[in-house]
Amino acid sequence: MKTITILIADDETEIADLIELHLQKEGYRCIKAADGQEAEAAIRTHPIDLAILDIMMPKLDGYEVTRRIREQHHLPIIFLSAKATDLDKIAGLVQGADDYVTKPFNPMELVARVNAQLRRSMQFNRLAPVNTQVLEAGGLIIDPEQRTVFLFGNLIKLTPKEFDILYLLASHPKKVYSSENIFEHVWGETYYEGGNTVMVHIRTLRKKLGEDQNKNKWIKTVWGIGYTFNG
To answer: Is the pTM for the entire model greater than 0.70?
Structure first.
């Protein structure tokens, strides 16, 4: 059975050691990095299954490390930060994180979140090959195998969750999905106050698709119900 490897990137040694201790009890292999450059190097040289990233790290912050990871990989990312406002959490999700844990934190809660993200990731990997049809609509091309999106010939860089939401909606253009439906399909878990999370991802997805610059509205809001693809 494959050993799952988790990257812990935090410049506070005590915190990294505490996380490592609890994750090793769960049977996970851990690789630690003390700054953003070390974290990026670890991603390049090791088969990482999940990354826990502090945001305020030396050399490269967690946002920049996430941006670079997302250029090549689709592994789950959990931000760990002392920034605790709703705006901070939203910013973390927009940057491409899958979850956000604030300091100080309960180590067992972090372990539970790690387990949940790994379950979702493994579930997605099992289900992803079922439908690999390239979708095209009015200049928009969505390729599920390459996980790429082109709009009028231009590559649109999406986070894994943004891609999954777009492909879900575009695969069923006549169907209206509620926030609950989207959360359960994309996150792979029962809906639990995930409305804001879905809304944030829809908002950033629309912006990347240029809905605020042109008349094309790829994602239509059906008020009081949810969202549908308008291709």
So the answer is: no
